[in-house]
Amino acid sequence: MEKKLIPAKKNAFRIFFEESSKNSITIIFLAIFTGLVLGGILAAATSVEIYDAFGKSFGSGIGATLNLIWKTYSSLFIGAFGTPSKMIAALRGGDGAAILAAFKPFLESLVVTTPYLFTGLAIAMGFRAGVFNIGAEGQLYMGSIMAGWAGWTFKGLPPIVHIPLALGVGILAGGLWGFIPGWLKAKTGAHEVINTIMMNYIAFNLAEYLISGPFQDPNEAFKTPFIQESAHLYRFFEPPLRLHIGFFLAIAVAILIWYMLFKTTWGFEFRSVGLNPHASKYAGINSSLITILAMTISGAIAGLAGATEILGVNFRQTQALSTGYGFDAIAIALLANNHPLGVILTAMLFGFMRSGSRVMQLKTGIPIDIISILQALIIFFIAAPAIIRTIFRLKEPSKNTLKPESASGEKANG
User: Fold this and answer.
1) What's the pTM?
2) H-helix or E-strand containing 390?
3) Are the C-beta atoms of residues 127 and 407 closer than 8 Å to each other?
4) Could you read off the pLDDT of 152-166 as tens digits, one per residue?
């Protein structure tokens, strides 16, 4: 008589853990957590005080390390969001000026997030259509300098005309910088990675020539004139607060791209070409046109990032406008799995970390470059989920539920 094995009953907690361990969102959160832990250890390794503490005793060294990690991330949080006690006290007091002062770090983080959000959307848009746009940095430069040109050249226009005009010029400039490599890929097969890198160098040097030549302010070297006040993007508060309408414009663009990609026929064609351009062409989709459009739209969004920076924050162009937004955007898009709504969250992660790093450096002496290392660690662990599954002993998703994924972040049907 055979004995039937009765499977052990699983409690609710174990079922939840097993199911959540198969979820990619869980991998992302654990990758961020692991990156933060290793980033804290690296931050401690740069401090002479830690080595002095270990010289006294092992316990003192561990205590000093934990204290420094806490101080590093608490100052990073305060720099990005503000001091919670001051924020609560200001809200209870009801004084408008005190509230704005308490929330200034948070509002400033939104300003820093805005170009990350635009450029992240630009890269994600290209990835979805199967094109790798490395040229967002150059497209941002061209969008910025041409929007600035429209901002200081046209005088006497009302804001309702001048602002859309300047934004439109920036969008067209960025779109042109994306159209060229897109057309070359579609018509000649030239790889967009090489072409967009080359277009970056052209943009950098062209911008440098314009700033130090035809566009230079007669009164200041290596700077353009200030744009007309009629071209300033609307700011919600008085200086020194800089939050402008560009942030909410970026949110609107993210929603618009999401709707286009997932709710329209054109979006389906974009994603289809991103999955398999040859099968899409066989199905009657004009793959060449989609490639050109994807690169052009991607460049236009990156150009809009530069336009909002000069019209909403800087008001003039200098040779140090961008701080690598276009290159960080690649990581932002990949971290969001190329989903437009996910880009909102990952752009805020990068923007808030970048904004808070200034306070972190002032309070702890930790180099601001540790933030770039931290971002790289997070991307590394997300790109290698097997490491996260091994560290946290997570189960692999069952093979019968897996679907192949393409580089565009799309799952194949089947």
Assistant:
1) 0.88
2) helix 385-391
3) yes
4) 999 999 999 999 999
